[in-house]
Amino acid sequence: MSKISFRINTTYTSIENIFIDEYMPKAPAPLYSLVYIYGLRCACAGIQVDNKEIAEKFSVIESDVVNAWVYWKDRGLVLLLGNKEKPVVEFLPVKSLGDNIKETVPRNKIKQLATKPTYKPTDVADLMANNKEIEQLVKMAEATMGKILTQNDTQAIVSFYDWMGLPADVITMLLSYYKDKPMGYIEKVAIDWSEKEIDTIEKVDKYMSRHKDYSKIMGYYGVDRRPTEKEEKLIRIWLDEYKTPFELIKEACQRTVEKTNGVAVGYTNGILKNWYENGINTIEAVEQMDKQFNSKIENNENNKSVKIVKPYAEKGVMNNSFNNFTQKIYTNEELLARAAEKNKQRRDKLGEKWNLRTNKAWNGKIQRLCNKQSWWRNKNYI
Fold first, then answer.
1. Does 267 reside within a domain?
2. Is 114 exposed, middle or buried (0-12, 13-18, 19+ CB in 10 A)?
3. How many CB atoms are closer than 10 A to CB 63?
4. Are 176 and 240 in the same domain?
5. How many structural domains compose the chain?
6. What is the CA radius of gyration of the chain?
7. pLDDT at residue 369 in the model
8. Residues 52, 129: one domain?
9. Could you tell me if residue 291 is inside a domain?
10. CA 336 vs CA 350, 370, 372: distances in Å
């Protein structure tokens, strides 16, 4: 019996209600849902398109479309197969998130899954035309920085919003704080804020307050720079865990500079950790601790027993760490006689290996060392 071929002749695309009810409201941007729905429509109709065509369809940049597919892949709705030349998007059954519905990944984290896009002038113009917030952001940036933005400046600021996902008001604060810095420096700070999810005015205020603390502490070392990531981690311990007052941090930094002649945050950490473990939280307590330590050292010095070592030249007596008994002192003649006896024993032992050259060298050595009684004793000749 022949199998039946089924076909559908329709002008609509079927979308799961679960997708509409649970996934769409959680999507970070409407574009993400549009990309999914349009891709599903093309799959149902057997139409092949690439990401560039989808971007042109919705007047966005291609990287936004790529980010959307990555987002839905992470949600388990599609599989990204194939390769760069022949990419394949496979739609999977839509499962309910149930009670475990999680908030979507922040826009900045999603954007960081893709390489930073290159914003062409036409891309920037399209974004500003389609998003009034971006247009207003660029105008505010010019007013904040007090200059007409170059093309590179505009592209960087647009990337803060579109790629890093920072809100417009946060970007404006960023520009106001660092308006005297080059745009390359501002971009590094923006990336730092994006990675740390500093995306509200409150978080910016807290960050800037902490940044001032870092600058203040580095100033105690006599330097004007930001702490490294490792140094910043230790400083956070002083401020957040130890709750160390700044006067103690300053004292510890000054002691560090005196001891190491440089910025040794690890050394400072050792001092502050010791004070913290001993309950020291004031300068007065530090001074009291120093007095107790110095007093202990002084007492130890006074209580040390003085070891009197008799000079080696005292006749018939040798005092050292190994011997505490009377030892005999030999004359040179006696030493030579004993050495000659040892020489004979050595010659008899070596037999044919002994020759005139060896004998001459041996006798010369005896002559040179005959006065060094310690050498003879160490060699077990006396």
1. yes
2. middle
3. 20
4. no
5. 4
6. 41
7. 56
8. no
9. no
10. 21, 7, 12
Secondary structure class of 77 (helix, strand, coil): coil
Within this chain, do residues 278 and 343 fall inside the same structural domain, yes or no? no
H-state helical runs in the chain: 17-18, 30-45, 51-57, 62-74, 107-111, 121-130, 132-145, 151-162, 168-177, 183-195, 201-220, 229-236, 246-260, 265-277, 283-302, 332-350, 356-369, 373-378
Residue 11 domain-assigned (yes or no):
no
Between CA 78 and CA 157 the distance in angstroms is 32
Separation of alpha carbons 244 and 281, rounded Å = 7
And the tokens for 225?
């720079």
Domain co-membership, 266 together with 339: no
Paired tokens of 138: 């660029």
Its domain, for residue 177, covers: 121-199
Q: What is the pLDDT of residue 243?
A: 94
Q: Coil, strand or helix: which one is 170?
A: helix
Are 91 and 33 within one domain? yes
Measured CA to CA, the distance from residue 101 to residue 95 in angstroms comes to 11
Q: What is the mean pLDDT of the chain?
A: 78
Q: Which amino acid is at 169?
A: D
pLDDT tens readout for residues 179-215: 999 999 999 999 889 888 898 888 898 889 998 999 9
Residue of 121, 27, 132 lying closest to 74 (CA atoms)? 27
Query: What is the pTM (predicted TM-score) of this model?
Result: 0.46
Give just the sign of the alpha carbon dihedral 246, 252, 258, 260: negative
Q: What would the pLDDT profile of 263-314 be if each residue is shown by its tens digit?
A: 999 999 999 999 999 999 999 999 998 888 888 777 766 665 444 443 333 3
- In DSSP terms, which residues pair with 91 in a beta bridge? 78
